[in-house]
């Protein structure tokens, strides 16, 4: 599957050098945690391919999936988890041959940088000093699902329910902790790195499976060549370096 996709990307990449007829405008829907990195990637891509245009749309992975289901024009979809991409594939929004993992992340528990409650384990979330735990809604946010699974494994999910503040995405969870509206929150490691002066990483949460991000050209894309070209750029040394600059890890 991946070999075929690699071949397609390589072929298109070679063709574009000598043929500007592939120039196009593509719409990329990506998980919120990719916001900063994909802004830089899109700029670098358009510098390399100046006749192409990239339009970025960010949101919780599940919300982006629903947008595509409702007919939103999307050429490339990048999710923060496998489950959402599996759902996209099951609904024939993407095909197995067109998806590939391109980066990994970590799940972390954060607290306010100043005046925060000391947290050394998930069990510490039960202490009286923690009254609000910001969490992406598990119904449509990968970070929320990862966090729920971790707390269920620690037999804490039901115990901390009264403290849970469901938010729309990881960046909202980050903001809640940064402005001290919540004493703790679950985000990805790359999100926490954006505000080192506002939040501290209390714990890196082990996950049953790697927090891997898949990306795929959509079935509905009318700009397949450009979509493959953009995915190829993300997987190139230049694209991977930009992701690394924001704390992402190479996909294994």
TrEMBL record:
Q: Into which family does the record put it?
A: Belongs to the bacterial solute-binding protein ModA family.
Task: Give the record's GO biological process terms.
Answer: molybdate ion transport
Task: State the oligomer form and interacting partners.
Answer: The complex is composed of two ATP-binding proteins (ModC), two transmembrane proteins (ModB) and a solute-binding protein (ModA).
Q: Which residues form the signal peptide?
A: 1-23
Q: Which UniProt keywords apply?
A: Metal-binding, Molybdenum, Signal
Q: What protein name is recorded for this chain?
A: Molybdate ABC transporter substrate-binding protein
Q: Gene3D superfamilies under this entry?
A: Periplasmic binding protein-like II
* Entry annotated with the keyword Signal: yes
Per the UniProt record, the source organism is: Snodgrassella alvi
The residues listed in the UniProt record as binding molybdate, with positions renumbered to this chain, are 33, 61, 143, 170
Q: Name one GO molecular function term.
A: molybdate ion binding
Q: What SUPFAM superfamilies does the database record attribute to this sequence?
A: Periplasmic binding protein-like II
Q: Does the keyword Methyltransferase apply?
A: no
């Amino acid at each position: 599957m991946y070999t075929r996709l690699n071949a397609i990307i390589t072929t298109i990449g070679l063709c574009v050098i000598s043929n500007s007829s592939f120039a196009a405008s593509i719409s990329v829907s990506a998980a919120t945690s990719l916001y900063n990195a994909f802004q830089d990637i899109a700029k670098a891509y358009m510098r390399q391919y100046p006749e192409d245009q990239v339009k970025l749309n960010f949101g919780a992975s599940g919300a982006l999936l629903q947008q595509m289901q409702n007919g939103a024009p999307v050429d490339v979809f990048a999710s923060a988890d496998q489950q959402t991409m599996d759902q996209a594939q099951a609904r024939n929004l993407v095909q197995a041959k067109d998806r590939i993992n391109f980066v990994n992340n970590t799940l972390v528990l954060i607290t306010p940088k100043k005046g925060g409650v000391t947290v050394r384990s998930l069990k510490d979330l039960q202490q009286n000093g923690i009254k609000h735990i910001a969490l992406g809604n598990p119904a449509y946010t990968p970070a929320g699902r990862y966090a729920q699974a971790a707390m269920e494994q620690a037999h804490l999910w039901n115990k901390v329910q009264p403290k849970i503040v469901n938010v729309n995405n990881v960046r909202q969870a980050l903001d809640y902790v940064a402005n001290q509206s919540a004493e703790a929150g679950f985000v990805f490691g790359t999100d926490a790195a954006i505000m080192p002066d506002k939040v501290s990483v209390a714990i890196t949460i082990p996950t049953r499976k790697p927090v891997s991000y898949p990306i795929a050209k959509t079935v509905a894309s009318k700009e397949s060549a450009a979509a493959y070209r953009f995915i190829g750029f993300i997987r190139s040394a230049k694209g991977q370096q930009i992701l690394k600059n924001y704390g992402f890890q190479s996909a294994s």
